[in-house]
TrEMBL record:
Lineage: Eukaryota, Fungi, Dikarya, Basidiomycota, Agaricomycotina
InterPro entries, A to Z: Aminotransferase_I/II_large, AON_synthase_class-II, PyrdxlP-dep_Trfase, PyrdxlP-dep_Trfase_major, PyrdxlP-dep_Trfase_small
Residue span(s) of domain Aminotransferase class I/classII large: 40-409
Family the UniProt entry places it in: Belongs to the class-II pyridoxal-phosphate-dependent aminotransferase family. BioF subfamily.
Cofactor needs: pyridoxal 5'-phosphate
Pfam short name (any one): Aminotran_1_2
GO molecular function ontology, one term from the record: transferase activity
Keyword Transferase: yes
Protein name: Aminotransferase class I/classII large domain-containing protein
Keyword 4Fe-4S among record annotations: no
Keywords per UniProt: Pyridoxal phosphate, Transferase
Taxonomic superkingdom: Eukaryota
UniProt GO BP: biotin biosynthetic process
Length: 440
């Protein structure tokens, strides 16, 4: 059917053109090779531990795959077909993470949508950090509590306190303990590399809700494999397992696999199995996916991931301390580290593999780095708030000291060349004005 002249096509074209005009049209990235044809240095992917290129993991995967009773497909929804491999893996995960129950989803996106669309009940409220992932928003939109959703300023305890106080004030059911309040955060935020103050939040929930009807839900997508004992995440690192209603761990980032697990109570697991549409109405993870994720967990349990994570976080500290003193002569609007990383004397933050280079010109900076053989992507509104554009750097255990120093030098050189070009432009304009005046 040819639709090119239809009014549907016209509307779709107009929407894309509008995105073009505002410089926010999304496109698939070009295949990643540098102009010299050699592979680019990866400062982009979420493969934080570089496990996707680990020969150890690859060999382990191929070995386990060839011995597995089932490898192809999974045959259907978890609720319809034999999920022995899935159940065995869930048992492993609940044991490893120390949770009462574990439930696999096909992706972190599906898990967040499934959880938030069905667990909050009518009368409940959902409170989320303003930087929370899109999948939580999509879940809330489909939830019975969608009319009672509130955001708080990123990582601000004062803002969270204010929102919770308002809820207690305005909602009798919340005050009496009959209705619940869910607080959704990410342990490590994907765009900023900031950490949610998890202990402070659990303390606040305990104090604010004496009926224990305030619940914390933590998305550990970017912390999985990197933080906590053997990579169990920030909740485990801080010893908060018993104070969190549900944790989400995804397998697609540091674990170089695909899929996700929700760690929670048996009761909530049962409810999700009955009501989470993103679990019920989809083909479950294929057997080979399960084998792959299982092999990644072998590397967590044998301590390999912890060693890689230590290397990764040392590299992050080195990058910051190498870059920071070299930024002093550059206007912060052109290139700077974010406030939580920019002050050497400030509160010590744990290093993170995610380091945003704040700049009002993210595309030119990214293009400049690309020409030097480095892949670090520009991130602009609507993915981040207006005025908070950046080139997001994701470091990997496989990056070297030389890689990160090259990145810092490239960014500084770009800023200096941009400043020099602006000065030249100004001088030409001044000269031009002088010439115009001399003609008068
Ligand atoms: C914080 C966060 N949660 C959830 C997801 C979704 O996870 P997945 O890629 O497994 O769908 C992502 C990935 O983009 C994420 O960054």
């Amino acid at each position: 059917m040819n639709q090119s002249n239809s009014s549907l096509a016209a509307k779709i074209r107009a929407a894309l053109a509008s995105r073009d005009e505002r410089w926010i049209r999304r496109r698939l990235p070009d295949p990643i090779t540098s102009s010299s044809g050699s592979p680019l240095i990866d400062f982009n992917s979420n493969d934080y531990l570089s496990l996707s290129t680990s020969p150890v993991l690859r060999n382990q995967f191929l070995r386990k795959l060839s011995a597995a009773p089932d490898v192809l497909g999974s045959g259907g929804s978890r609720l319809l077909v034999n999920g022995r491999a899935h159940s065995a893996f869930e048992a492993r995960l609940s044991g490893f993470f120390g949770s009462e129950a574990a439930l696999l989803f096909n992706s972190g996106f599906d898990a967040n949508v499934g959880f938030f669309s069905c667990i909050p009940q009518s009368g409940d409220a959902i409170v989320y950090d303003e930087y929370i992932h899109a999948s939580v928003h999509d879940g809330i939109r489909a939830s019975r509590a969608r009319d009672a959703q509130y955001s708080f300023s990123h990582n601000s305890m004062a803002s969270l306190r204010q929102v919770l106080a308002k809820l207690l004030d305005e909602r009798r059911g919340v005050r009496s303990g009959e209705d619940s309040v869910f607080v959704a955060v990410e342990s490590l935020y994907s765009m900023d590399g900031t950490f949610a103050p998890l202990s402070e939040i659990t303390d606040m929930l305990e104090k604010t809700f004496p009926h224990r009807n305030g619940y914390l839900v933590v998305d550990e997508a970017h912390a999985t494999g990197i933080y906590g004992p053997q990579g169990r995440g920030r909740v485990a690192q801080l010893g908060l397992e018993s104070k969190v209603l549900a944790r989400l761990h995804t397998f697609g980032k540091a674990l170089a696999a695909t899929g996700a697990v929700v760690l929670t109570s048996t009761l909530i697991r049962d409810y999700l199995l009955n009501y989470a549409r993103s679990l019920i109405y989809t083909t479950s993870l294929s057997y080979s996916n399960i084998v792959a994720a299982d092999c990644s967990f072998d590397l967590l349990t044998d301590g390999t991931a912890e060693e890689l994570a230590n290397d990764l976080l040392s590299l992050s500290s080195h990058f910051i301390s190498y870059l920071r003193p070299r930024l002093t002569h550059i206007p912060p609007g052109l290139l700077s580290l974010p406030v939580h990383l920019s002050n050497a004397d400030g509160v010590a933050v744990p290093p993170s593999p995610i380091i945003p280079l704040m700049t009002s010109h993210p595309r030119p900076l990214s293009a400049y780095l690309l020409a030097l053989g480095m892949n670090a992507r520009p991130i602009t509104w609507p993915t981040v708030p207006k005025g908070k554009d950046r080139v997001r750097v994701c470091l990997h255990a496989g990056n070297t000291i030389a890689d990160v120093e090259k990145l810092a030098q490239g960014a500084i050189r770009w800023a200096e060349e941009t400043m020099a070009a602006a000065r030249k432009r100004e001088e030409r304009e001044v000269e031009g004005r002088g010439f115009e005046q001399s003609k008068l």
